[in-house]
Amino acid sequence: MGDEKRELPPIPDRLPVTVVDAHTHLDACGAKTAADVAEMVDRAERAGVARVVTVADDLAAARWATEASTWDSRVFAAVAIHPTRTKEFGPAEQSEVERLARGERVVAVGETGLDYYWDYSPHDAQQAAFRWHIDLAKRLGKALMIHDRDAHEDVLRILDEEGAPETVVFHCFSGDEHIARRCVDKGYILSFAGTVTFKNARGLREAARLVPGGQFLAETDAPFLTPHPYRGRPNEPYCTAYTVRFLAQLRGEAVHEVAEAVRTTAERAYRLPA
């Protein structure tokens, strides 16, 4: 059992329509070199996951993600300072994030937001950094990729107070159907990770049922949150295909319809070539 838990899940059959993994961490999955990245994305492409957005949570990861996005045409990047790392977020860090976020293949400012689950950064520091990232996304005209853990009300309040960017993506959406309706009404995009497949995710499943086409994405957040029935094993971008198929079953729609919605929404949100 121990050896099995360390193994990657099997690569599923290829989706009938290619999709985008809207949020992954290739470096945390073990990729270091261009060859590592190509190997990982090759596996994803075998499952019909043709492009990925690799996401940073600190400056070192932001530098790596920005560089990695230039190694392979299937890879794009998002950069920001994760809310749990905002205890020290001053002018030097802000200048570097902004420099990286201006990269041609950086498609989003993220992941930023609020995390009240962990006690690594004070709430006021998180909120100040979140406001700064919102402003950056608006100035650059790029999507805002939100991390929201146990902080729904403050995230929504600050977006209202600051004025949301044109495109807002709730990465690994974790709210219930009531929070989802409020987000949908604002025009925000909800990105569903493997958590929606977990057996105890009733509220999250209800949220995934009600989101209209054009306002939802699929992601892995790899190497975390591997979809059922492989929960607990390492995750990689190809596992997006498991979540897409689950969403189709959950919503009572054809797999190709959900895959098409996921792809076209990612293309629009991140301004990817069609």
Automatic annotation (TrEMBL):
Task: Recall the GO molecular function terms of this protein's record.
Answer: hydrolase activity
Q: Which domain of life is it from?
A: Bacteria
Pfam families, A to Z? TatD_DNase
Q: Which UniProt keywords apply?
A: Hydrolase, Metal-binding
Q: Know the name of this protein?
A: TatD family hydrolase
